Amino acid sequence: MAGSGVFAELLDGDTFKYYADGQWKRSTSGNSMTVINPTSRSTYYKLSVCTKEEMDHMFDAAREAQRAWARVPLWRRAEALHKAAALLKQNKDVIAECLVKEVAKPAKDSVTEVVRSADFIDYTAEEGIRILSEGKCLVPDSFPGNERNKLCLSSRIPLGVVLAIPPFNYPVNLSVSKIAPALIAGNAVVVKPPMQGSVAALHMIQCFHLAGFPKGLISAITIKVADLGDALTTHPAINCISFTGGDSGIAIAKRAGMVPLQMELGGKDACIVLDDADLDLAAANIIKGGFSFSGQRCTAVKIVLAMDTIANKLVEKVNVKVARLSVGPPEVDSDITPVVSESSADFIEGLVMDARQKGAKLWQEYRREGNLIWPILIDNVRPDMRITWEEPFGPIIPVIRIRTIEEGVQHCNSSRYGLQGCVFTNNIHRALIVSDAMETGTVQINSAPARGPDHFPFQGLRDSGIGSQGITNSIHMMTKVKSTVINLPVSSYTMG
Prior knowledge:
It is found in: Cytoplasm. This protein is an alpha/beta fold.
C-alpha cells in the first residue's frame, strides 16, 4: 500500500512530503495540492506545496553535494545505483499501485514500468563506468607547424546540477532515465515530478534515499507550476535541463539561455503502410502502437497513411481487432483505461467531433463515460481535420488514404513534429528509401514506434525535441570534455 512500510516516512497525515537534504519534509507553506484518480475522478492523494525559499535551499544543497559527489570513485557511484535498482524491484508492487491510481495505467504494465526502470539503472551504472573511465591523450605534431612538445589529456566531467522534469505517462521510468545518467556522471539532481504520477515518483525517490546517496544530492520538489514554474526552470543554479512533456517545453527552451537541454516534446508518429506490406503484421502493430496505454504515449501511432490499393483490407483487419479490445478500469488490466484527466478527455472528444462533422468515417460509435473513451478507428481523414495534425494522446487512430509513397512521406514531413515513424513493406530497399526520406528521429521498419531498448538513441526533430536520449547519449549530454595540456621541452630532433 502506498505510503506504508519502508515508505511510511513519506506521509504527514494524509499528505505526501517533498524530499530535500536526505529527508522527507512537510512544506512550511502548509498548503497541499491534490492528485485525482482518473478512474473515479476524485481526490486520491495530496502533495505538500513547496515554497520558493525551500526550492532555493534545494539548489544550494545540490551544488554543495555535487562537488563532493564528483570526487567519489566511479565504482562507488555505480554501487549506489545498483542498490537503488534492487530496491525498486523489491518494492515494485507498491509503486505499481501508485501508477494504477494516479495515471490509470493497467496493473500489469505498471509493474513492467518499475522493473524496466530498475533495469535501466543497472545498465546505466555499467555503461557509465565504461564511458567515464576512458580518456584521450593527444600529441600536437599531427597539426602543421607543431613539435612534439605538448600532451593533451582529455576526460569527461559532470555539468553540475541537473533539473529533471518527467511526464505523467511514465513518471517512474522517465524519471530514472534522467536521474541515473546524471548521478553516474557525477551530477546532482533536482526532480520536479508531474502532478499526476508524483506519488509514484516520490516512492521511487525513496528507493534512492534508502540506497544511501549523500544528503542534498537528490531532491524532489512538489510545486504548483502556475506559482513557481518559471522560477524553477530559470534558476541560476541549473546546469542542465532534461524535460519530457508537451509544448511547455518550448517555452522552457526559449528561456534556458546557455543551459544544455535534453527535451522530448511529443510527436505525431506516422505509420506508412505500402502496397506490398504484410497486412496482418501491420494491423497488429497499429493496434499495439495506437492503443497501448490508451494512446497516451509520445511514440504511439497517431496517423496511419495507407496506400489506396490495400487500405480497405487494412482498415477491415484493424477494425476487427479494435472490437476485441477490453475497456474498463486499470486494476483488471483492461486494454483501454481512462485517460489522465477530464481536460484530456474533452480535448480528445473535440478532435473526434471535428473529424465527424467534416465527413470522416467513424468505424465505432463515439462513447465516453467520464475520462474513459472507447477506442475509435477514424477513416477517410483529410488535411482540413484537426486530427490530421494535432496530437490526441488518446485511444484514436486516424487513417489517411494515399495514392503514392511520396504523398505519404510528404504528409509525414509536413507535420510540426518529427519524433518517430514506421513503414510496413516486404521490400527492404523500399523500406530504406522511405526511412531515409522521413524526417523523424527514428523510423521503425515493420514494427510500431517504440522508445526502447533504452540504450538505443532516441531523439526528435522540429517541435519533437532537442538533443538525443538513450543511456549512452544521456551520459554524454550530462558531461562535458575537460582538457589538461602538459607542456614539454622542445625536441632538438630535426629531419635532414
